[in-house]
Amino acid sequence: MKSLKRMAACSILTALLLGSTTVTAESVIQELYSEELTARTWEGIPIKHMDQHWAKRLFQWGISSNIINGYTNTNLKPDQVITEAEFLKMFYRAVGLAIPNASANSAYRPSENWTEGLYRTAKLYNHPTIGANNFALRMKPITKLRVAEIISGSQGVHYTGQYAVTYLIGQGLANSKATSPQQFDGESTLTRAEALQWIRQLALHGKLTIEQRPKIPTDLGLLPEMANTPPEVIPDFSTEPVTDEDFNLVIQGNNSELRFGDSKKSIDAQFGNSSGKSIFDDDMYPLFNAHFNQNGELDGWKTYLYEEDSIRPGVSRLTKKGIVLGESTITDVISRYGSSGVRGNGIIDYHYKKMNDGTYQDISIYDRISNMEDVCMIAFLVDDKTQVVYDIIVKSSLKDAF
């Protein structure tokens, strides 16, 4: 499992582009493999009718992650109240489930309504719905209380009503400033944008997972205590400033540092000669892989947990912002780099453009990038269960990330 994730880390941007359903992504990938091309424009995730909407970036994220799609007229209808069936579709896609026929124009079982696979899945996971045996109720607006019951159930507990809300508030997963079920207003409905934002919060907490809800209600004594202060809601796409040093790798234990622009000769002097080339043309050293440009200068590196790391006591690998390989969690990454890079499914990646004054500007991968060679990347992979960082990747340009 881990070896597969490590290979994915080496081509993290390619995975992002292939994950997009747009023809643009596929054509960009094909063109980048041409040696005659030195720079390429990435068109991002363009969406219509939402240029001034507060949830534009949320929908770009949702589309790129295959969580949500528009209607036949390409209108995403962010302010439309979401139905139970629509929420199930959004939620199950977000946690990575393949839902047969969950599209009105699907070729799978064309005679079957698109909602059937969703409700079979809900039954499999014992998630509470009102539309399981009544098709008309599937198209009724879902309440926040029912969403709370489904989400809490996906975390492997069985609570209903105010207890489901109490659980989510205590876990920081309610996407609300409420400190009690009464403040939560569970009988109200929510829009498609608000539902997507709630799912985004699950991703930011590393809780975009799914488990079967137990048949027997969970002991109420296990509910978290309610705090008097409102729980913190993580901003959907926050950023933190970076400097040149943030693209370096610090190795504690031997007092060394891997710096962008260092020559291969100087790196060999510090760490010994590389053991050879990886399939991605990286030079392999005991604690990291390094990529050098045509001038022999370091322009990219990656480091990940090896099985033999347990026999290297006292040696830690970390970024300048203090993200320690094998120790820091998704929460640590967000606190130091911001929430903008959280993609879900264990991938966190940040993109920056160096300005003329030497500062770095955060760049959204969802927007158009006129020259990918101008944008650098810092990426982390976290373990699905522990949410601990096991892979760090830094590239001087998105084009080189291929």
UniProtKB/TrEMBL annotation:
<dbReference type="Pfam" id="PF00395">
    <property type="entry name" value="SLH"/>
</dbReference>
<feature type="domain" description="SLH">
    <location>
        <begin position="42"/>
        <end position="105"/>
    </location>
</feature>
<dbReference type="InterPro" id="IPR001119">
    <property type="entry name" value="SLH_dom"/>
</dbReference>
<protein>
    <submittedName>
        <fullName>S-layer homology domain-containing protein</fullName>
    </submittedName>
</protein>
<feature type="signal peptide">
    <location>
        <begin position="1"/>
        <end position="25"/>
    </location>
</feature>
<keyword id="KW-0732">Signal</keyword>
